Amino acid sequence: MMRHKEEKEANKEAFRKYLESSGVLDALTKVLVALYEQNDKPSSALEFIQQKLGGPSVSEYEKLQAEMSNLQIKYDELLGEHQETCKELEELKNSHTMAMASTKETIDGEAHNDRF
């Protein structure tokens, strides 16, 4: 029981050191101090923190989501067109191969008849 508690504390300490060494604690502290020092508190503290950490605002995020959705629709359309074009190309290749084989048979047949 005691060992489990010690391991848990060691894991917490290792995580805290990780956050500190990677600059996360400093960045969060600065953002929280900036929020605290705001005379007019923002209506959304979370959005304020996201903006200060470099993330998009809610409206920017929604705009990016809409743009991504539109791009996905366009991608799907283009992919469908591409697949249809590939299918048509394959059909043309097959008909060309059959036409070439038919022409070869005709030529071979005529050459065979010319010998006799």
Looking at this protein, list some descriptive labels.
116 residues; mainly alpha
What can you see in these coordinates?
With 116 residues, this protein is mainly alpha-helical. It is built from four helices and no strands. α2 crosses α3 (45-52). The longest helix has 58 residues, at 58-115. The protein is elongated. The termini are far apart. The mean pLDDT is 88.
> How far is the N terminus from the C terminus?
103 Å
Poorly predicted sequence stretches spanning 5 or more consecutive residues: none
Number of strands: 0
Class per helix and strand makeup: mainly alpha
What is the ordering of alpha helices and beta strands?
Answer: HHHH
In one word, what is the shape?
A: elongated
Query: What is the gyration radius calculated from CA atoms?
Result: 35 Å
Biggest sheet overview: none
Number of helices: 4
Question: Helical content, roughly?
Answer: over 70%
What is the average per-residue confidence, as pLDDT, rounded to a whole number?
88
Approximately how much beta-strand content do the residues carry?
Answer: under 5%
